[in-house]
Write a structure and sequence with these properties.
The chain contains 9 helices and 14 strands. The chain is of the alpha/beta class and about 280 residues long. It is globular, with a radius of gyration of 18 Å. The model has no long low-confidence stretch (mean pLDDT about 90).
């Protein structure tokens, strides 16, 4: 009886959020090592299916870094990063594209297996992610987002189908470009006028002391985030994730969240409970 009462209390707590976010788009970026953990991946995808049945319109953008690293190693191609971006020669680009398509098919299959209805897309198709070759040091086939065509995405979300997107873009030169998944996801969130942008990662969120989970910031403003970057509290691999959140917010997305994908049903806890479980960033 106590367990049933506890469950009913959770459902009642979730009700205002279900009403508030009904019919709203939430763009979720999922990548890194968590994507390769079958248990974690299953929980994340089940959460996304739950969101869909609760009336939200989730859009999933994924990476595939560990699988790409493995495939490049098998092909005797060195992996090199500059400022967090993978240097991508033409041979590497072919492998990146191939691996991301495989990951995409897996995610679509598993979402459908959990009772959702998903459709896989690559940004290179139908001019969806229009890429521009990055300036600065020569990274090869690495691009930034020039524009997003949302035609197909809106058709899918309007019919309650979950788009699953891999971040490969095509330039005006007809070449394929490797797009950072955080950047692709934040730009897609802006283009779709999303209610929320969620970055799933392998840390709790933004912490004052990265070794102390108790120092987690549950909520931050854009101004506070800028200060934390300036003072070095936010550093290293957290910076590009935070910058993608700021890009989304400055593009009129309502809220951004950084959440640890490894926590049990982290997405649901962040979106449907009062306190949440990660770090939310607001205007």
């Amino acid at each position: 009886m106590e367990e049933a009462i506890r469950k009913s209390a959770i459902l009642i707590e979730a009700l205002p959020y279900i009403k508030k976010f009904f019919n709203k788009i939430v763009v979720i970026k999922f990548g890194g090592s968590s994507l390769n953990d079958e248990k974690v991946r299953s929980m994340v995808l089940q959460d996304i299916v739950f969101m869909r049945y609760a009336g939200m319109k989730p859009v999933l953008v994924h990476g595939g870094g560990p699988d790409i690293n493995r495939r490049l190693l098998e092909s005797n191609i060195d992996t090199k990063f500059v400022d967090g971006l993978r240097v991508t020669c033409e041979a590497s680009m072919g492998i990146v594209d191939s691996v991301l398509v495989e990951v995409n098919r897996l995610l679509v299959s598993e979402i459908n297996g959990f009772g959702g209805e998903a459709f896989g897309l690559s940004g290179k198709e139908n001019n969806m992610i229009q890429a521009i070759k990055r300036d600065g040091p020569d990274l090869g086939c690495v691009g930034s987002v020039g524009a997003i065509d949302t035609t197909i995405l809106k058709r899918l979300t309007d019919t309650n189908i979950i788009p699953v997107i891999c971040p490969v873009g095509k330039g005006e030169d007809g070449k394929l470009y490797n797009i950072n998944a955080d950047e692709a996801a934040s730009n897609i969130a802006i283009a779709l006028d999303a209610e929320k942008f969620v970055v799933l990662t392998n840390v709790r969120g933004v912490m004052r002391d990265k070794d102390d989970p108790g120092s987690l910031f549950h909520s931050l403003t854009i101004e506070t985030v800028d200060h934390l970057i300036e003072t070095g509290v936010i550093e290293g691999g957290m910076v590009p994730k935070i910058m993608s959140c700021l890009t989304a917010l400055r593009g009129a997305v309502r809220k951004a969240h950084i959440v640890d994908a490894n926590l049990t049903h982290a997405l649901l806890l962040e979106i449907f409970t009062d306190k949440g479980i990660g770090t939310e960033i607001v205007h």
